[in-house]
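Supplementary Methods S3. Complex input for the beta-D-glucopyranose-bound model.
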Amino acid sequence: MSREVGVLGVDIGGTGCKAAIVDITNGKLKSERFRLDTPQPSTPENVGKTIQKIVEHFNWKGMVGFGFPAIVKNGVSHSAANIHGDWLHFNAEKYFGNLLQLPVKLTNDADAAGIAALKFGAAQNQKSTVLFLTIGTGIGSALFRDGKLIPNTEFGHLFFKEKIAEKTLSNAIRKRDKISMKKWGKMWTPYLQHLERLVNPDLIILGGGGGKKFDRFAPYLQVDTKIVAAELSNNAGIVGAAVYAYDTFAKDTTKPPSKTLQKLQSS
Ligand code: BGC
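Predicted complex, serialized as structure tokens:
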């Protein structure tokens, strides 16, 4: 029988910051979701205040996993498409850890959501190439081969039809331009076909706010690959961020297990 292990997962998006305590043994939420708007301008200082409020809301004293809408390498943010430019080459993981005085890990938001799909959702046990796309303020991507993540793929930034793909295909643009489901399906088709040719996936999963509309626009998509909606929907980013944090701390054999991890493992 597996024991419950709780980690606070926080999904920082271009529009909202969503969080919940996640049981990382089964991917279920152990608390209600809590959401605050992403502050504007979304500078490190302002976002820092928001995450402090989130942690206070849960009165959380344990490990925290963050999904972040940018390229993330070793905790450092290396892009800033839907977040303030001050995050560029900024060690966000260190900043959040110091601010909260808690053990934290940070990963790309789409990679986090993909990890959740792989562990608990549509991509569970998939031994093949899985392409996960999250459709929100931007378009994020996560690519897996035989269950292993190739991080920071950024397919939302493919230059497609002379534009950055997410600038025409994101959920935010669909809402802004009041694009019908039929038209949206037709707009998405050539982009997905292009991705099919580039990475030859065996399964495509669509998540995020746009993925929630899957049943309505999927009839207008023409792709050869099996394509499904992400089951965990909008919670995937929260769940995956928590799982990523736990797994990363657990795998770090260079340091003795932190008191927090020992406490979590014996709880
Ligand atoms: C960012 C990605 C992110 C995606 C979804 C894009 O603009 O470049 O890193 O995963 O938005 O938030």
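The radius of gyration is 18 Å. Residues 181-199 form the longest helix (19 residues).
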